[in-house]
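Field reference: sequence -> structure
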Amino acid sequence: MRYKEMIIQRYKLLLKYIGILTIGIGVILLLPLLVLPFYPQNIMYSTSFLIPSFLYMILGGVIWKLIQSENNFTLSLKEGGIIVLASWILAIIASALPFIIAGKLNFTQAVFEATSGWTTTGLSVVNEAKTPNIFLLWRSIMQFFGGAGLIVVMLSSILHPYGFGLYNAEGRSDQLLPHVKQSAKAIMLIYSGYTIGGIILYILAGMGVFDAVNHSIAALSTGGFSTRQASIGYWNSISVEIVTWVLMLLGTTNFATHFALLKGKFKIFFKNGEVRLLGVLIAVFTPLISYFTLTELYNYLPDLLRRGIFETITAISTTGFSLDTFNNWNSFGMLSMILLMLIGGGTGSTAGGIKLYRIYLMFKSLIWQFEGYFLPQNAVRENYIWRGETKLYIKLEYIRETANYIYLYMGTYFIGVFIYLAYGYDLTNSMFEFASALGTVGLSIGITAADAPTGILWLETVGMFLGRLEFLVIFFAVAKIIKDLKFNLENK
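Structure field:
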């Protein structure tokens, strides 16, 4: 019975955390109203945000006040996963409500758009040319907080510092500083500083202020929502594209690696396996895509290189901005983009995909195995890779966990592709579109649209959600809830 009482107390704390996060979501819903002084014609949509904002703040406040619990113990990863899962679902529902209340999207479309925003995917079912500025800004705000991580934002401001399970459950496995709260604050400072810097650079490159704000957020969060239907290609500006390159690369880099760079530890920065693999992939795929695909579409060398490097970076960083349509790309180019989207960006960054760290680790494990054949039988060695500012010594269990994750990721990917095929889409388009959704990329071959089948939109919604929260967190959270519920029912 003592264990049962402990479970109840811990779930009370979980609900208290969820209550605080619900209040936070309500506050975030008010942020799009900041656009009203500049676009007063959008005031007619203010109630679409005020209603869900007040509902969430009241609901969160009631939960926080009514539930009494001890808060002097550290949350486990599984408990953190429960809070992350609940808060993200609440955030997505809250974020969909303004679109529904305003009559802009139906329920399926609104949940899809909100999921795409919070997971920093960038797939969209709205027509940017016909969408009011308040909703365009709202999409970017979702990507800002989704990129940093809702939990990281709250840990950096109001949540209790014992929440490493929370921090870890949202994909932040590297602590920048000794305390979780300090690490969360450091992430927010880096993230906000880069965003402001991006806004300034975009304005200098020729963007208007509203476009600059939205695109800086979208590029750094590797989200890819644009205020223009033609995305970055609308400006046809090399200056705008270079700023976007830089922001996408910053967004796809692990925050711990950023911390090393900002402290001037350049040698350590370039020792990081993720940084090296990222550089190799861009250096290899840019000329390959340019030569084997883009030479069929463009005759001018600068056009080839501009598009080659941009599309390579947008795919590997899982951002989803584009300069062109992919409908006229050949099979080589399409397969290259699919591979890059599946690999994805850095761990602990705003990017999605399998992640560079996992790919690099599996490559190194293969090298270590080959090297082992030439070493004496009783030789002892410590295998490590650089991650952030430290050496990470690799245990066999890390390699096994990584292999299992890749297996789970690819299994989910192929199930999704089969569902597309069942809907009548061809193989290449199916592989491209679901690689984009599951990798939280946002590039589209044209399948994703307001008139797409409802089943496809829900498939992509689930794919984006799984891809952002990385499968295991969700599975562990659900398994723990079921296990604890079963124990309580058996011990009434």
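Note: The chain has 20 helices and two strands.
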